[in-house]
Hints:
Order of helices and strands: EHHEHHEEEHEEEHEEEHEEEEHHEHE
Number of helices: 10
Largest sheet: 8 strands, mixed
CATH class of the largest domain: Alpha Beta
Number of domains: 2
Low-confidence stretches: none
Structural class: alpha/beta
CATH topology of the largest domain: Carbamate kinase
Strand order of the largest sheet: 3-9-2-1-12-16-17-15
CATH superfamily of the largest domain: Acetylglutamate kinase-like
Shape: globular
Mean pLDDT: 93
Helix content: 25-40%
Distance between the termini: 21 Å
Number of strands: 17
Amino acid sequence: MDSFFFAIGGNALSREGEEGNLQQQYAHSRETMCEIARVLSAHPSRVIISHGNGPQVGNILFRSEFASTVLYPLTLDVCVSDSEGGMGYMLQQVLHNELARINISCNVVTIITQVEVAPEDPALKNPTKFIGQFYTEEVAHNLARERGLTMRQDANRGWRRVVASPRPTRIVEAEVVRSLLNAGIIVIAAGGGGIPVIRRPDGMLSGVEAVVDKDLASALLASTLGIQTLVIVTGEEKVCLDFTKPTRRPLDHMTAAEAIHYQAEGHFPPGSMGPKIEAAVNFLHADGERVILTCPGCVYDSIEGCAGTTISR
């Protein structure tokens, strides 16, 4: 039986130029879940789904800070868990309904997933992960000055908050996910990259205020479970060289070695396509068969080889 891991970007659910309200997120979720249901209709498969949470977790954290004069504040790891539960519920319900619409009976379940990170990871002291909404430069500088936030420009689209993003080293609930997959259940796991935790010398886990990159966590979970195909759903149909230049060139296919070469040339910036390419290479080097990068409306066609960018070993 085929096996697919669908990693859906948070920006594919809350899109640039939109408010990102629940109605919009549900509408975008249906677009992607309809494609996944179509894949399952044509290719009965083991399926895992993850999702990003950059816009969403930033908004959760902002609401907590905004209300801190009347309610207790939330730590960032708890905000990540909130996004895992809320967004998992949304995707779980939408996929259930799409499968029922085409007469496929299959349970879908969301697992609140913890992801171990190294306590000495230097990324914990160097914020790079964009979260939340976009701001003008003036507003961003005011937020940095008044509230001590770290703000950076995001690919010339505006200014956003950045937080620590350590590398995932182990998925705590991986064997639970494996058991559910083996039982024929569709699993939503490692949402928002999973809740970052460190393991203390006594074996106990403690949360870390950070946001793990969801593509790196997805690649780790997919390779741990022996998944064949990793599908990264983002805002663009294809990966492009010279993405922001007039010489922009979309790619239908590349090898892992070519992806590494292009990344070294600077085509895939750290704040955007870079982690997706790194995740793809990690997955392929861990014996994954192929990685597909595409946009929400092209998932089925990309799996059939008619759209998207495929990266192979």
